Amino acid sequence: MGNREKSEDYFEWVYAVVAKIPFGRVTTYGAISQYLGLRSGARMVGWALNSSRIDKEYAGLPCHRVVNRLGQLSGRYHFTGNVMEERLRQEGVVFINDFTVDLEKHFWDPARELP
DNA sequence: ACCTTGACAGAAT
DNA sequence: AATTCTGCCAAGG
What we know:
By secondary structure, the protein is mainly α. 41% of the residues lie in helices and 8% in strands. It has helices at residues 10-19, 29-36, 42-54, 83-90, 103-106, 110-113; strands at residues 27-28, 66-67, 95-97, 100-101. The chain starts with 9 loop residues before the first helix and ends with a helix. It binds a DNA duplex through residues 1, 7-8, 28-30, 33, 38-51, 53, 63, 66-69, 73-78.
């Protein structure tokens, strides 16, 4: 795990996109997989982030800005405590409730915003 | 080598 | 409208 050389390179592609999510904006697993044209689907995007969590080289990745299609912080349990929510609130992201962000307001679509 | 389990999402029931 | 099923594929047991 955390072995970037082997496995499919799309893990790298995922990291690249996540790294470009602007401050105060969020995107979804599905949007990323769609933008990258991954047949593997949104599930593998989450899997890639799971690897990045362990891989120190990607410790700075703003993976807290990735939520599921309903705006729910499905990855919150992979952060310590409620770090994911705290970070987003710090960026001024509006919450519907403790684990759901206002996607309408903050959604960032890589397919539309990226060249 | 087989089965289960996911940081998901969309279709089908 | 709500729940279940299905595609997807990498790890871990």
